[in-house]
Amino acid sequence: MANATDMAGVERCVIVADKGLFSADNVKKLKKGHLSHIILLRRNSPLIPESGDFPGVLMYDGGPVKYWQRTDDVYILEDPVLKSEEEKDYLIRVHDDARSKASFSDRSGDSGKLYLLFDLHEEPERIYGLHKQREYVEYAFNVYKNDLEVDRAYLREDHMFSTYMFLNLLSLYLHSQILNLIEGKYSARDVLLILSRIKMYSFEKKEMMNVVPKKAK
């Protein structure tokens, strides 16, 4: 990653990572490479400080999020929506006898909480915002893999691979533009399916379009 930022000419880079990538060794390597980081910690991590009463609330995407003051480079945040979803999911498992009532009580204090390890001198709003932006990257990879189906490239020449990557980025851009236009009424895959029903027929020097489906107009 340090080599990639040097090649791209990036002066400041923040690595936003999931809990699976945390280790003391990885943090040391990031610091050695002068790379800032925001890493989600596992909820049983020994680095997590005592929370106590929360001192403040920040707003993100129109919703409130509790936060605790920075302690040993860790911010504790609690998303009420995430808390509700996690508790609902766990209670369903209790109902189905997949989990016990006692285990629900033991873990209820962690529901909806995020523990972020970082080395930036920023306010909690900024740290949380950078962490949440990781979802857009994950969504882009999901689009690459499932919608555009371009997660595999069988190319040997560098210039061909560069062209391939450019077309993939262009496709991702068009995908996002389609989503902005349809405003959630359809998925991008639905749009492609609808537009695929529009066909052009060539007869010698003439071209004719079939009847355009109502949804495609």
Structure, described:
- The chain is an alpha+beta fold and 217 residues long.
- The chain folds into two domains: 2-132, no CATH class; 138-216, no CATH class.
- It contains eight helices and eight strands.
- It has helices spanning 2-8, 24-32, 80-95, 101-107, 124-132, 134-147, 158-182, 188-195, and strands at 14-17, 36-40, 56-60, 63-67, 74-78, 113-118, 200-203, 206-209.
- It has a six-stranded mixed sheet with strand order 1-2-6-5-4-3, with helices on both faces. It has a two-stranded antiparallel sheet with strand order 7-8.
- Strand 3 (56-60) and strand 4 (63-67) form a beta hairpin.
- The chain is extended.
Secondary structure blueprint with pairings:
Layout (H helix, E strand, L loop, with lengths): L1 H7 L5 E4 L6 H9 L3 E5 L15 E5 L2 E5 L6 E5 L1 H16 L5 H7 L5 E6 L5 H9 L1 H14 L10 H25 L5 H8 L4 E4 L2 E4 L8
Parallel strand pairs: 1-2
Antiparallel strand pairs: 2-6, 3-4, 4-5, 5-6, 7-8
What key attributes describe this structure?
8 helices; alpha+beta; 217 residues; 44% helix; six-stranded mixed β-sheet; 2 domains
Give a brief outline of the structure.
The protein has 217 residues and is α+β, with helices and mostly antiparallel strands.
Largest sheet: 6 strands, mixed
- Report the helical percentage: 40-55%
The overall average pLDDT, rounded, is 85
Helix/strand order, N-terminal first: HEHEEEEHHEHHHHEE
Radius of gyration: 24 Å
- Domain count: the total is 2
The coarse overall form would be: extended
For the biggest β-sheet, the strand order reads 1-2-6-5-4-3
Percent strand: 15-25%
Based on helices, strands and strand pairing, what is the structural class?
Answer: alpha+beta
As residue ranges, the low-confidence spans are: none
Number of strands: 8
